Amino acid sequence: MNPTSRTLTFAAVAGVSALIATSAWYASKPSSVAGFGDVGQEFFADFSDPTKATSLTVVDYDGDEKEASTFSVKQNDDGLWVIPSHHDYPAEAEDRLAKTATSLLGLKKTAVQSRSKDDWKLYGVVKPSENGAAKADERGTRLTLSDGSGNALVDLIMGNQVEGRDGSYYVREPEKDTTYIAQLDVELSAKFSDWIEPDLLKINQTDIVKVVVDNYSINEQRGTIEKKELLQFTKKDLETSGDWELDGLDVEAEELDNSPVSTIATNLDQLKIVGVRPKPEGLDDNMRVNPAVKQILQMQMQAQGYFIGGDKEGNERLYSNEGELVAGINNGVQYTLYFGEIARGTGKEIEVGLGDEAKPDEADDDEKNEEDESGDETSEDGPRRYLLVKADFNETLLGDKPVAPMEPAKPEILNEAAEKPEDAAPTKEEDSAEEKKDDAEDGSCGPDEEDAAEETAKEDEDEPEAKTETEPPAVEKAATEKEATEESKADAPADEKKPAAEAPADKQPAGDEPSKDDKPAAETKEEEKPAEPEKDPKQIAQEAYDAAMGEYEAQKTAYESDLKTYGDKVKEGQEKAAELSTRFAGWYYVISSDSFEKFRIERKDVVSKKEAEEEKTDDDKEAGDDK
Description:
Radius of gyration: 53 Å
Number of helices: 16
Shape: elongated
Strand order of the largest sheet: 4-3-2-1-6-7-8-9-5
Structural class: alpha+beta
Number of strands: 23
Distance between the termini: 143 Å
Strand content: 15-25%
Largest sheet: 9 strands, antiparallel
């Protein structure tokens, strides 16, 4: 082989070797693993504003029911948060949803756990609604946040927690196979009670001042109302700190146990609902029935233990087969609770009533009791009860309305002192006086005045005789008094008659003999002291009237202040009652049985006979003897 051929041969072999080596390298090069390139990236890079999330849907798998359950909350067209899965019942979702949405901002793919769908069960990320034989712990919880147009902002399946790593969970996007690990701090709940206002009545037990327990029942066979006991408890003087009093209690022979009534108040404060139903049309806020839909309404509500009957005014209203309870608050709001039939069904049916609810005539009382004891159709807390609630305003719960004080009447004597009107016509005497004044100024007198002068002169001539007849002259009066004194002395006993010479020298005045009636100078001086003039009756009346008016003005000021305070209470109570009435208007509820049992009390549960005083005395005596 010549050198050229040999060179070409070596070159060809080298080229083939290079090609084989290149092929081998490409064949052995590791392929790119799907998903690894996304590590550290955000799941939802376009989601940057949590306020755009206006709805949340949680789908979970119910192992007991062996089906997926969906719970959702959203903001309706009026801007109110409601629960579509529960008949659009009002939700307390704004804060909770905002917190959930914020926790998902910037959610990153921390690591890739698996690229195979065969591993979904292992990490618990199978769709909760997936058909198949996946167990409950192999299924995850699907969380979806959407905007107002229904576009998904976040859509994620949360699986099991990563062992040994707090806050780390296996997650995947619903339409992708790769399972990631992500750091999550989100509270997911598909429980109805977690998304609503848990306090149904919004009552503070310390504000309750009235409780009425009406233990009537419905005779379903006859369709009549059977009255039983009506117990009315009221706080003394409607004061929240007062003791409970029972109408009709014989305080001489009976005593009241306050604890069952206090338990009712506590239970009203803590009352929780476990399910809701939309109230049928034709039943207003005051439980009045629209006659046009009476028969339809009766059919709809009878299964829940509610019946239609007439009230005292002849209007048709709703009655409940387990009686009523009235609770009055010191702000004037009055609640009426209507207790219905036992609520039966699965947990989901208890909450939203989607299943066929048992009719009262489908099982007799023994069968109902067996179901309650076995728990087949009840929760772990016992059977549930239907409840209707009404709220209105009762002004009497505020106590007595302030009464205006009575203005004192002006004394009649002050009315008589009123000045005469200036335009009154002058009297005859005033005319005569004016004429005399004018004549005096002129220095002449008229004929009338001359006649008056003659009459005056005649009266002066006759006056001495008149005076003599009525009162003797001073001289004759003195003589008469002296003669009377001497006769008195002559008639006096001998031992009282003392000559003037026998009188002590220091006591004997000079001159004439003193009279028996003469008194010491001091006494004479005291008698001569002028007495204090009596107050003018008009002045006394004026002072008393002024004092009464001052007290009246003070009472009037206090009354006006109290009346304003009372008016403010009335307004606030009416507004609160209207707010609650609106809240209860469209719904009736399901409550736990233990709440119902605490509301059901009878007179024998609270009233006991007092021990006789004789028995108490004997017991005390025996106790003393033992000591």
